[in-house]
Amino acid sequence: MAKPNPKGPSTTVAIACAKCRTPLYRYRKGGKGALVKCFKERIAEDFTQAPGICPGCGSQFARDTLVRGTPAFKIVGGKVSVK
Questions:
Q1: pTM of the model
Q2: Alpha-carbon gap, residue 35 to 27, rounded angstroms
Q3: Of 3, 24, 47, 63, which is most buried, counting CB atoms within 10 Å of its CB?
Q4: Domain boundaries, the chain
């Protein structure tokens, strides 16, 4: 499969913890679908200290993985909200 476009879309979405509403990322998301994965190269701003862990409540919202040979975070269902 083809690798994702590193530049990606120009519009960004705010990703926050669903439990405590702490901001996690500003992400350049493409398309209208649900947020399933976050490619690391498309993260515009990162507000977390540890990868995949919410700085506010300490819950794990994502797992580190490779998608199509590119580093990404797999989002755990229901743990984040996208605006």
A1: 0.88
A2: 10
A3: 24
A4: 13-82
1-9 CB contacts, 8 Å cutoff, 24+ apart: 1/68, 2/68, 3/68, 3/69, 3/70, 4/39, 4/41, 4/42, 4/68, 4/70, 6/41, 6/42, 8/39, 8/41, 8/42
CA angle 13, 82, 30 (to 5 degrees): 50
The dihedral formed by the CA atoms of 44, 64, 79 and 49, expressed in degrees to the nearest 10: -60
**Token pair in block for residue 82:** 């996208």
pLDDT class for 2, splitting at 50, 70, 90?
confident
pLDDT in tens, 11-26: 899 999 999 999 999 9
